Automatic annotation (TrEMBL):
This is Phosphate-specific transport system accessory protein PhoU. It comes from Alteromonas sediminis. Belongs to the PhoU family. Pfam families: PhoU. Homodimer. InterPro entries: PhoU, PhoU-like_sf, PhoU_dom. GO terms for cellular component: cytoplasm. Residues 26-112, 129-213 form the PhoU domain. It comes from the Bacteria. Plays a role in the regulation of phosphate uptake. Keywords: Cytoplasm, Phosphate transport, Transport. Its main location: cytoplasm.
Length: 238
């Protein structure tokens, strides 16, 4: 095999390794996306069996995180990527951690569902859970789509959606505080809904992180701690 053929073979193998990182991240993202959906449904429908499924799946998510971390480390050590390839590996490593933490929050929601089924329904907050759950699920779906397409504009839209999730969370908190003041006996059950809403808000935060990692990957810009308007102007002005 001459040098040209060897180089071609090495580059093809390298490209395959980078593509494998993307594929594995999207597969992990798909599992977490379904995990979040099932967790919210387990609250809405008082479905302990579905909640137990969400909890079991978290083990698979953890294993995928460890495997992807190993793959990223291997590529960094063996290939010493530069420029956009380096950004891809770093972005995948960071997004993997955010996805794992989103899975942790989905597991917490599932545990709240089981607790509510055992102690009785909360006095309110289910509509807020449904609404916030839908917003967050859309964010996660759009973030994964933005990564698959290397679409920085779509990632900006995901970051903007997190602001709406934060507003909904604050509004829902006020509603539940009212329920608890009116009926102190409902406090323990209402707290389960409060923690559920908090987990959804945290999933929104992690999804925004993923959007920022995508912008870094596509544009080479570090937009952490920037306002959405600043991020949008930087992305569109590039």
């Amino acid at each position: 095999m001459d040098k040209m053929q060897l180089d071609k073979h090495i580059y093809q193998q390298y490209d395959s390794e980078l593509e494998a990182l993307q594929t594995k991240l999207l597969a992990m993202g798909g599992i977490v996306e379904q995990q979040i959906k099932d967790a919210v449904n387990s609250i809405e429908n008082a479905d302990s069996d579905l909640a137990e499924k969400v909890i079991r799946i978290e083990d698979d998510v953890d294993l995928r995180e460890v495997a992807l971390d190993h793959d990223c480390t291997t590529v960094l050590a063996c290939r010493q990527p530069t420029a956009s390839d380096l950004r891809l590996v770093l972005a995948v490593a960071k997004m993997t951690r955010d996805l794992e933490r989103m899975g942790d929050e989905a597991q917490k929601i599932a545990k709240m569902a089981i607790s509510l089924n055992q102690s009785g329904a909360a006095p309110g907050g289910y509509e807020e859970v449904r609404h916030m759950g839908t917003l967050v699920q859309n964010m996660v779906h759009n973030a994964l789509d933005a990564f698959a397409r290397f679409d920085a504009i779509r990632a900006v839209e995901v970051a903007r959606a997190d602001k709406q999730v934060d507003r909904e969370y604050k509004s829902a908190m006020r509603e539940l505080m009212t329920y608890m003041m009116e009926d102190p006996r409902s406090i323990s059950r209402a707290m389960n809904i409060l923690w559920t809403l908090r987990s959804l808000e945290r999933i929104g935060d992690h999804t925004r992180n993923i959007a920022e990692h995508i912008i870094f990957l596509v544009k080479g810009m570090d937009v952490r701690h920037k306002s959405v308007s600043d991020i949008e102007s930087k992305v569109k002005g590039d």
